[in-house]
Amino acid sequence: MSEPSEVLTSVLTCMDHRLAPLAILQLEPEQAHVVRNAGGYVTEDAIRSICLSQQLVGSSRIVVLHHTDCAASARSAEDYRALVEANTGVSPTWDVEPVGDARERVLAAMEHLRSSPLVDSSRLEGFVYDVDDGSLTPV
Ligand SMILES: [Zn+2]
């Protein structure tokens, strides 16, 4: 059981194998709920997971952790849509998230979280992890 002073963190990050979010953020497994998807974007499901983490378990801190050289952000939204449609015959029904450098994507994700009435974003932080040198930069 957690000590009252211990802060539980919701981490929203990319599914990229080069990221070990707990190690990067120096968190123990019991200190975080890690929500991962392609790009670490604020999807409906990411909001659901963070909301339930806050409402059911009492997490209070949110960290958005994106990284350099992210394949999920390397093409335009139109390119992704065309790629998926060409290979599957189906146009994706999900929104294709904004691209840009990692810092811009973290800022967009933080803004998206702040705009959600389902999420308490009063303790929201963002970071960029550099996959080449292992550095972590606050946004
Ligand atoms: Zn990525």
Your description of this structure?
- With 139 residues, this protein is of the alpha/beta class.
- It has four helices and five strands, in the order E-H-E-H-E-H-H-E-E.
- It is 32% helix and 20% strand.
- The longest helix has 14 residues, at 44-57.
- A five-stranded mixed beta sheet has the order 2-1-3-4-5.
- It has a single domain (9-138), classed as 3-Layer(aba) Sandwich (Beta-carbonic Anhydrase, Chain A).
- Mean pLDDT is 91; it is low at 1-5.
- Bound molecules: zinc ion.
- Residues 14, 16, 39, 67, 70-72 line the site of zinc ion.
Topology overview:
Elements: E1 9-14, H1 21-25, E2 32-37, H2 44-57, E3 61-67, H3 77-88, H4 102-114, E4 124-129, E5 136-138
Parallel strand pairs: 1-2, 1-3, 3-4
Antiparallel strand pairs: 4-5
The structure holds zinc ion.
Lateral arrangement of strands in the main beta sheet: 2-1-3-4-5
What best-fitting shape do the alpha-carbon axes yield? Answer: globular
Unreliably modeled segments: 1-5
The CATH topology corresponds to Beta-carbonic Anhydrase, Chain A
Briefly say what this structure is.
The protein is an alpha/beta fold and 139 residues long.
Keywords:
disordered N terminus, Beta-carbonic Anhydrase, Chain A, 5 strands, five-stranded mixed beta sheet, 139 residues, binds zinc ion, globular
